[in-house]
Amino acid sequence: MKLLKPLWVVGRRPGRAVSTWSPLATAFNTRPSTQPLFNNFKERTGLFCKPELVSFEGFYALKEQAVEATDRLIEEATNNPTRPMVEIFDELSDTLCQVADLAEFVRIAHPQSHFASAAEDACISVSGVVEKLNTDRALYEALRDSVKKGTSGDKHLAELFLFDFEQSGIQLDAGPRNRVVALNDLILQTGQRFMAGASKSRKVPRDIVPQNVRQFFSTEGDSIVVSGVYAECAEAAAREAAYRLYLAPDRHQHELLTTTLEARKEMAGICGFRSYADRHQHELLTTTLEARREMAGICGFRSYADRAIKASTMETASNVRQFLDTLSHNLHDRAQVDFDQMLAMKRTESHQDSLQCWDTPYFTHKAKTQLLNVANSDFSPYFSLGGCMEGLNMLCQELYGISLKPEEMMAGESWSPDVYKLAVVHHTEGSLGHIYCDLYARAGKPHQDCHFTVRGGRRLPDGTYQNPIVVVMLSLSGGHRGGPALLSAGAVDNLFHEMGHALHSMLGRPAHQHVSGTRCATDLAEVPSVLLEHFATSPQFKVLLIMFRRAIPKGGPSLRAALPNREPMPEDMLQRFCASKHLFGASEMQLQVFYSALDQHYHSENASSGGRTTDVLKQVQKQYYGLPYVENTAWQHRFSHLIGYGAKYYSYLISRAIAWSIWKKHFEADPLSRAAGEGLRRGVLRHGGAVPPQVLLRDYLDTEITPDKLANALAEELDYHRDYLQAVFKIR
């Protein structure tokens, strides 16, 4: 099992002036640096208001409480239960997740090592409990029998629990079942090592690096250190050298990946599926792929991809392949136009006659800079953190009737002094949950923007609702000396994206925790976030947001001093900013199709064995991408998403297609329609994963969701943005 009235309403007139910030914007435009002195005299609470977590030792108490509750619930489930089985299983899931999810976040985010260590111990302990449950045949049979008798309760949820069991081979005899357990462990250990190796710098002897590009790299003794592909370097020879050296084949990574893929396939086969969606990096890759392949076979799947995709929007690996093939066909000519324009730029700059993989990021960045006619840093004064949160709050009020209200935290509630707490409040329904915003970089904090569920929502036995608690984590700089943090254009997108996940969690109201909020199919989970990005970048909404994105003068000593001088972003600058985000969109999407197709091929039933992952890469790149493979490189050894998203990397493209379909049908004509917002909330967001995604989307969009329709939706989106680019920049 995976047991794991508005405060401030803004009128719609684009020209309306705002003379002062709202309380929300004021709070987020000031970076809290210390807890108030009087907090020292208050009675302390624990992290997230859990009294046990006044100290790190509380994790041991939480762990023991969860174990005791788990034993009680297992006893209830296997001995004449008096309530529907899914209610018992969901309480079991909630009991374990409330400890595991909280501990996983604290392990990653807490700056104090003793808290992080205690949280890690709790994670390991709860994982051990889950492993035991996954092999508890009596528990599985109790659930299976209740489904057969029709007494399980919510049938869809019961089938999800059964599917979680059967992916681990619980239904098999002891021999194959034990093999699945061993393969799962192999995949976990090998995958962790592969991911660690995927981002490591590469040291090479100085004498193999051309002398004319050595100055672009760091040195360490007699070695050159290559830390990436140097995508934005203006020197073409340095870009080529970095690409070839950083992506040179790594035997260890290859073996690890191949082992993982083989194990996934074997395990899926054992469990009854056709596929699971390949050892230094070479070895790790090989090991991973082989383990996945074997696991899929043991579990009765033809491939690991079939195993991974079964409960998704696409439902089968063949549907995913059809989607990718149709989309690739749609993109071919559109992407070639992008490549031709980049090649023309390269010829002007270097007089070279071929475009290579190491060129596209550089020329995309250069073209955007030229079209914008201003430096990226010139946008930041318009994007104060408080202004962005104010705009987001206005959007929530208009669409859903909810407000984001800053709350003061109790002593001991937070893990860091610069964390904000938001209450999400509906104008008639009251509190929907809380979002903790951990937005600033600090020593030891991962530099990865993400969303964490600390507690899922569910209906409690007394009829009340357990409100969700989530954390949004970014790594912003600034916000010191009384001035607000100023966001880059990319940081604005990331803020809206992660807040999209958080709002999905807040607006979800399923009866069961196991399917709350973002606990839904992977290719559905990104839809709310991608849709929120449409609001952040759509010309219609940007014009409205002009009132929130007022310039903070550079060098201003404080927010108070800056307030009287705020000026709106010039209209031309705003339009260029919106349009430039979609420059060379077809070639970028084709690259994502290539990545997705490679992931599918590695996890398909016809995936080649014997560790020939580079041969597969060459074949897939030739079919799905418009630029040639670079000999003696093994890009897949750096593709860490093969581990975390095994056979599901396509999900972002599907989510983007769904989000565009929603935008066109319900929001394009009036982006701030309350009727459209309520329709989205009640038709999609409130269900979480409680409704099969195909059924949910068919009913909401009033059309069948097919691979071809989704592929065509993405082509339509590209053409829409192309026309907008041409209108703004007068380009052809």
TrEMBL record:
InterPro entries assigned to the protein according to its UniProt record, in alphabetical order: M3A_MIP, MetalloPept_cat_dom_sf, Neurolysin/TOP_dom2, Pept_M3A_M3B, Pept_M3A_M3B_dom
Gene Ontology terms for molecular function: metal ion binding; metalloendopeptidase activity
Annotated Peptidase M3A/M3B catalytic domain residues: 281-714
Pfam family, one: Peptidase_M3
Protein origin, superkingdom: Eukaryota
GO biological process: peptide metabolic process; protein processing involved in protein targeting to mitochondrion
CDD domains attached to this UniProt entry: M3A_MIP (cd06457)
Cofactors, names only: Zn(2+)
A single Gene Ontology CC term: mitochondrion
Keywords attached to this entry: Hydrolase, Metal-binding, Metalloprotease, Mitochondrion, Protease, Transit peptide, Zinc
Annotated localization: Mitochondrion
Cofactor binding mode and count: Binds 1 zinc ion.
Keyword RNA-binding listed: no
Family: Belongs to the peptidase M3 family.
Protein's recorded name: (diamondback moth) hypothetical protein
Source organism: Plutella xylostella (Diamondback moth)
